[in-house]
Design a protein that fits this description.
It is found in: Cytoplasm. The chain contains nine helices and 14 strands. The longest helix is centred in the last third of the chain and has 23 residues. The chain is of the alpha/beta class. The structure holds oxa(dethia)-CoA.
Length: about 350
C-alpha cells in the first residue's frame, strides 16, 4: 500500500485583484522609422493601425519594466510584495537563458524564497501565464501569484526589415491573481501548432550564429546577428480564420455569451485583425474593444495587460466588467479566457 500523499487545499475561485503597466518613456512615431524601410505613415496606419510605439531606452530593461508594472499591480490590489508566493513572467525577448527574469524580479521587489519562473508562449504568453496562475490559486498550491507579460522586442528588431520594424515594440504589464468569492478567471481555451514555426521566429539560433561568426572571422567578412522575422500574411490569415473558434471556445467554457461581454481585449497585433474578430464574433456595438496598438504597437506578451489598462484608464471599461482576452502569436500558440476586469491605480 503506497504511503498516502496529501494534496493542497483548493479554493473555489480565483480572480485578477490588480493591474499595473509600464510604458517606456520614448515615443516613436511612424515618421521616425519610415525612411529605413521605405514606407509611409499612411501605409503603416492603413495596414496595421499603428501610429506610434514605445521603444525602451538602455535603462528600461526586462527586469526594471517588470518591477515598475508589478509595483502598480500590487498597489492596485492593495497587497504587499511579501504576500505574493509565486511569480510567473512571460516573455520572448530575454537576451539571457538564465537565470529566469521572474526570479530576479521577485528579489528586486523584496520577496524572499518565492517560487518564480518564466514562460515562453510568444504573444500568447500573458494568457498562458494567467491560466497557470488561476489554476495554482484554485488548486491551493499558491495563494497569490504575480503574473507579468514583458518585452524588449527592440533587442531582436532589424530596423531595416519592412515586415517587422514598424510593428514590434516594448513594454510591460502585470497582474496579481488571488482567491475570490466569485469566479474572475474562466477556463482557458489554448493550443499551439509547431509546424508553423516559420511564420514568426528568431531567424537563426545562437549556435548557428556563433558558427557564422567563426566562419566570417576566418574569411575576413562579417556575419549578421539573429533577428525576429515574420511572414505577416500567413499569421494574418491564421488569425482571422482560426481564432474565431478559440474565442467561441473560451466563451463556451466560461458559460458566457458574446452578447454578455462588456469588453474585448485581443492581442494587439494589427487593428485589422481586431476588427475582423469583432465582426465574426458579432460583438454588440456597446462592447468596449481594446485599440492600444494605435499608440503602443505590438508588445507581444505585454500587449494584453497594457491594452486592458488602456481600456480601464480611458473609462471605456471599468473594474468588474466581463472581458474576453485572447493572446496569439509565435508558436503558433493561442490562449483565451473570460475575466472580470481588475482595478488599476488612480
Ligand atoms: O504578434 C504576433 C502576431 N502577428 C500578427 O498577427 C501580424 C499579422 N500580420 C500583419 O499584421 C500584416 O500581415 C502586416 C501588417 C505585417 C503586413 O500587412 P499586409 O497587408 O499583410 O501586407 P503585405 O505583406 O501583403 O504587403 C502588401 C504590399 C506589398 O506590395 P505589393 O506586392 O502589393 O506591391 C509589399 O511589398 O505592401 C508592401 N509592403 C510595404 N509597403 C510599405 C510590405 N511591407 C511594407 C512596408 N511599407 N513596411
Amino acid at each position: 500500500m503506497p504511503t498516502p500523499i496529501a494534496t493542497a487545499v483548493p479554493v473555489a475561485h480565483a480572480a485578477i485583484l490588480g493591474l499595473g503597466v509600464y510604458r517606456p518613456r520614448r515615443v516613436v512615431p511612424n515618421h521616425d522609422i519610415v525612411d529605413a524601410i521605405d514606407s509611409s505613415d499612411e501605409w503603416i496606419k492603413t495596414r496595421s493601425g499603428i501610429a506610434a510605439r514605445r521603444w525602451a531606452s538602455e535603462d528600461e530593461t526586462i527586469v526594471s519594466m517588470s518591477v515598475a508594472a508589478a509595483r502598480d499591480a500590487l498597489a492596485a490590489a492593495d497587497i504587499d510584495a511579501a504576500q505574493i508566493d509565486t511569480v510567473i513572467l512571460a516573455t520572448s525577448s530575454l537576451m539571457v537563458l538564465g537565470p529566469s527574469a521572474g526570479a530576479v524580479v521577485a528579489t528586486e521587489l523584496g520577496m524572499h524564497d518565492t517560487a518564480a519562473f518564466d514562460i515562453s508562449a510568444g504573444c500568447a504568453g500573458f494568457c498562458y501565464a494567467l491560466a497557470d496562475a488561476a489554476n495554482l490559486v484554485r488548486s491551493g498550491q499558491a495563494r497569490r501569484v504575480l503574473v507579468i507579460g514583458v518585452e524588449r522586442l527592440t533587442d531582436l528588431l532589424d530596423v531595416h526589415d519592412r515586415g517587422t520594424a514598424f510593428i514590434f515594440a516594448d513594454g510591460a504589464g502585470a497582474v496579481v491573481v488571488g482567491p475570490a468569492e466569485q469566479e474572475g478567471i474562466g477556463p482557458v481555451a489554448w493550443g499551439s501548432d509547431g509546424s508553423k514555426t516559420s511564420a514568426i521566429k528568431q531567424d537563426k539560433d545562437f549556435q548557428q550564429y556563433f558558427a557564422e561568426v567563426a566562419a566570417a572571422e576566418a574569411a575576413g567578412t562579417t556575419s549578421e546577428r539573429p533577428y525576429i522575422r515574420m511572414n505577416g500574411t500567413e499569421v494574418f490569415r491564421w488569425a482571422v480564420t482560426f481564432l474565431e473558434k478559440a474565442c467561441r471556445d473560451a466563451l463556451d467554457r466560461a458559460g458566457v455569451a458574446a452578447s454578455d461581454l462588456d469588453a474585448f481585449v485581443p492581442h494587439q497585433a494589427n487593428l485589422r485583425i481586431v476588427d475582423a474578430l469583432v465582426r465574426v464574433l458579432e460583438l454588440p456595438d456597446d462592447v468596449a474593444v481594446a485599440h492600444d496598438i494605435v499608440e503602443s504597437g505590438n508588445t507581444s506578451a505585454a500587449s494584453i495587460p497594457m491594452a486592458m489598462e488602456q481600456l480601464l484608464r480611458s473609462g471605456a471599461a471599468k473594474p468588474g466588467d466581463t472581458a474576453l482576452l485572447l493572446g496569439f502569436g509565435a508558436g503558433l500558440a493561442y490562449a483565451g479566457q473570460v475575466v472580470a476586469l481588475p482595478p488599476i491605480v488612480a
